[in-house]
Automatic annotation (TrEMBL):
<dbReference type="GO" id="GO:0000166">
    <property type="term" value="F:nucleotide binding"/>
</dbReference>
<feature type="binding site">
    <location>
        <position position="12"/>
    </location>
    <ligand>
        <name>a divalent metal cation</name>
    </ligand>
</feature>
<dbReference type="GO" id="GO:0005737">
    <property type="term" value="C:cytoplasm"/>
</dbReference>
<keyword id="KW-0378">Hydrolase</keyword>
<feature type="domain" description="Survival protein SurE-like phosphatase/nucleotidase">
    <location>
        <begin position="6"/>
        <end position="183"/>
    </location>
</feature>
<dbReference type="InterPro" id="IPR002828">
    <property type="entry name" value="SurE-like_Pase/nucleotidase"/>
</dbReference>
<dbReference type="GO" id="GO:0008253">
    <property type="term" value="F:5'-nucleotidase activity"/>
</dbReference>
<dbReference type="InterPro" id="IPR036523">
    <property type="entry name" value="SurE-like_sf"/>
</dbReference>
<keyword id="KW-0479">Metal-binding</keyword>
<dbReference type="Pfam" id="PF01975">
    <property type="entry name" value="SurE"/>
</dbReference>
<feature type="binding site">
    <location>
        <position position="11"/>
    </location>
    <ligand>
        <name>a divalent metal cation</name>
    </ligand>
</feature>
<dbReference type="InterPro" id="IPR030048">
    <property type="entry name" value="SurE"/>
</dbReference>
<protein>
    <recommendedName>
        <fullName>5'-nucleotidase SurE</fullName>
        <ecNumber>3.1.3.5</ecNumber>
    </recommendedName>
</protein>
<dbReference type="GO" id="GO:0046872">
    <property type="term" value="F:metal ion binding"/>
</dbReference>
<keyword id="KW-0547">Nucleotide-binding</keyword>
<feature type="binding site">
    <location>
        <position position="42"/>
    </location>
    <ligand>
        <name>a divalent metal cation</name>
    </ligand>
</feature>
<feature type="binding site">
    <location>
        <position position="90"/>
    </location>
    <ligand>
        <name>a divalent metal cation</name>
    </ligand>
</feature>
Length: 273
C-alpha cells in the first residue's frame, strides 16, 4: 500500500520544536507536507482570514495566518489530495470539552473534518508550573507524542476508525527523557465536562478571567472520572478522544411544541392586525 499523504499543521508555528518532532517522525511512515503558521498562533480557535501570504519552507509552506487558514489554504489549494491532516504537536495540553473551540491545534482538525478529511490533533500536557517554558525544548522530549501519533496514523486510517469519528484529539503526558523512557499506555477517552472558569475584579476597571482547571492538574488533585481525557493524562496515560466536528443535537419534543406554538400565534396575531 502507498504511504499516506499528510498535511501537517499546528498553532505554535512551523519552527516550533513540537512541530519538528512530528514532521521528522511522520516522514518515516508518510509523505508529509507542512502547511503551518509562520509564527505562534496559539489559542486563536477557528479564526479565519480573508487572504493569507505564504512562503516556501524546508518542510513545505509557512502561512502568515491561523491554523484554520492553513487547513483551508492547504486542502483548498496547495495539497487538496491528502489523506489525513495532523495538527501538532502542541506544547501544552488541550483537555476538556470547553477547550476544544479555543484551541488552534484542535480547530485545525475540526476544519479538516468539514472538508471531509480525517484528522488528528496532538498536544503534550506539561505539569511545569513556573518552569513550564524551560521544559520540552528538544525534539527528543516529544518522543512519546511522536510514537503515539505514528501508531495512530499507521492504524486508525486503515481500520474504519474515521467512519465513526471525524477527528481524534490526542493528549500525551510529558515525560522527562522520553526518548529513552518505557512505553506509556494509551486510553480511549471523552473530553472532561469539568469547568472552572471564573472572574475576579481587579480595581474599578479590570476583571481577571481565571481558569482554575490548570491548578487542579498539578499533583494528585485531579478528580475527573476515569474515562475522561484529563483523568487519563493525570494518570500518566495517552488520551485519545474520538470526536465529530458538527455541533449536533437530538429531536426535542418540548422545543417542537414551542416552535409550533410560535408559528400558530404569529399567524393569529397577523390575522388580527
Amino acid at each position: 500500500m502507498d504511504a499516506p499523504q499528510i498535511l501537517l499543521t499546528n498553532d505554535d508555528g512551523i519552527d516550533s520544536v513540537g512541530f519538528r518532532a512530528l514532521y521528522e517522525g511522520l516522514s518515516t511512515v508518510a509523505d508529509v507536507v507542512a502547511v503551518a503558521p509562520a509564527d505562534d498562533q496559539s489559542a486563536v480557535g477557528r479564526t479565519v482570514s480573508e487572504t493569507v501570504e505564504f512562503t516556501d519552507h524546508e518542510y513545505g509552506y509557512a502561512v502568515h495566518g491561523t491554523p484554520v487558514d492553513c487547513v483551508i489554504a492547504g486542502l483548498g489549494s496547495i495539497c487538496p489530495d491528502v489523506d489525513l491532516v495532523v495538527s501538532g504537536c502542541n506544547k501544552g495540553g488541550n483537555l476538556g470539552a470547553y477547550v476544544l473551540g479555543r484551541s488552534g491545534t484542535v480547530s485545525a482538525a475540526v476544519e479538516a473534518a468539514f472538508f471531509g478529511v480525517p484528522a488528528i490533533s496532538v498536544s503534550m500536557y506539561i505539569e511545569g508550573g513556573e518552569d513550564w517554558a524551560s521544559l520540552a525544548t528538544e525534539p527528543a522530549d516529544f518522543a512519546t507524542a511522536r510514537r503515539a501519533t505514528k501508531h495512530l496514523v499507521e492504524h486508525a486510517t486503515t481500520s474504519g476508525v474515521f467512519e465513526a469519528a471525524d477527528y481524534l484529539n490526542v493528549n500525551v503526558p510529558f515525560v522527562d527523557n522520553a526518548g529513552v523512557s518505557g512505553s506509556i499506555p494509551m486510553r480511549v477517552t471523552q473530553p472532561s465536562m469539568r469547568y472552572e472558569m471564573g472572574a475576579e475584579r481587579n480595581g474599578d476597571r479590570e476583571i481577571a478571567l481565571k481558569d482554575g482547571i490548570w491548578e487542579l492538574m498539578r499533583g494528585d488533585s485531579v478528580d475527573d472520572p476515569v474515562g475522561t481525557d484529563r483523568r487519563a493524562v493525570a494518570d500518566g496515560e495517552i488520551s485519545v478522544s474520538p470526536l465529530t466536528a458538527p455541533h449536533s443535537t437530538q429531536q426535542h419534543d418540548a422545543l417542537d411544541e414551542i416552535v409550533a406554538a410560535y408559528s400558530s400565534n404569529a399567524k393569529t396575531e397577523a390575522d388580527g392586525e
